[in-house]
């Protein structure tokens, strides 16, 4: 069984972070391991507290996984500060971990900061150059590129700017897009290869953890040797099912349904290149 590592924060509410990643790995038939960078007290209503894990412990978690497991793909989520980013980047190089998905988690839906402001430069300088794929949502892509996204052209410009970091590919997710009827995710790589996947926008407030789940699905598929195109399609179908059949848990923005992909038939995605 392929072994996959998530390096991210814990969400006590179970919808995002490490918990979302491990559930997604399980559903996609890969073995999930984890390095926890921060513990959040969080539920569907928001983030109540954030406690960073001491850096010495993060180093030991990385070592414990790296020394024993044959890691086929890695995803990063909430990294919180610059020293954690440096430590994670050093381990990725030390263990020569390939197929790295960097989800540049910055702000939770409720507005809580999950990455210190000064850590953004460290992310661009130390982690993005190692990435197979960076998966910002629209506000994160704007923060990483310094370009405001309001149409296809500015979305492409932002993606091109992010690729200057050295990442092999960038996938700008469309959950925060303006169109009320569909969401569009845009992929661009260093060779100019591009792909857009468009799906219907599901009218629901239960979208907590969509980005974590999507990037975990990408990492799981990469671990199984799937191409970017194949992994992108599976991850998009996985999150579409998970949102469409969400669980109505909690009083706020509820989690998605991580087992929906297994239970329900997949919807067609519109795909095109531009
Ligand atoms: N309401 C929705 N309907 C269908 N797909 C959605 C919806 N909201 C988000 N998605 C999809 O979920 C994935 C995560 O996107 P997004 O919500 O932008 O990330 P994040 O959670 O990091 O903000 C993307 O594939 C996006 O298209
Ligand atoms: C511990 C932790 N990590 C990441 C997030 C953000 O998750 P995301 O998938 O972007 O979902 P929302 O915050 O937009 O619901 C988080 N909340 N907690």
Identify the notable features of this structure and list them briefly.
UDP-N-acetylmuramoyl-L-alanine:D-glutamate ligase, binds the ligand Cc1ncc(COP(=O)(O)OP(=O)(O)O)c(N)n1, alpha/beta, 274 residues, binds adenosine-5'-diphosphate, six-stranded mixed β-sheet
Protein described:
- The protein is of the alpha/beta class and 274 residues long.
- It has a single domain (3-272), classed as Ribokinase (UDP-N-acetylmuramoyl-L-alanine:D-glutamate ligase, 3-Layer(aba) Sandwich).
- Helix content is 37%, strand content 23%.
- It has 9 helices and 10 strands.
- Strands 3-2-1-4-5-6 form a 6-stranded mixed beta sheet.
- α1 packs across α7 (210-223) and α5 packs across α6.
- The longest helix has 17 residues, at 228-244.
- The protein is globular, with a radius of gyration of 17 Å.
- The model has no long low-confidence stretch (mean pLDDT 97).
- The structure holds adenosine-5'-diphosphate and ligand LCLJCK34.
- The site of adenosine-5'-diphosphate has 18 residues, from β8, α7 and α8.
- This is Hydroxymethylpyrimidine/phosphomethylpyrimidine kinase.
- Belongs to the ThiD family.
- Residues 11-257 form the Pyridoxamine kinase/Phosphomethylpyrimidine kinase domain.
- It is an enzyme of class 2 (transferase).
- Keywords: Kinase, Thiamine biosynthesis, Transferase.
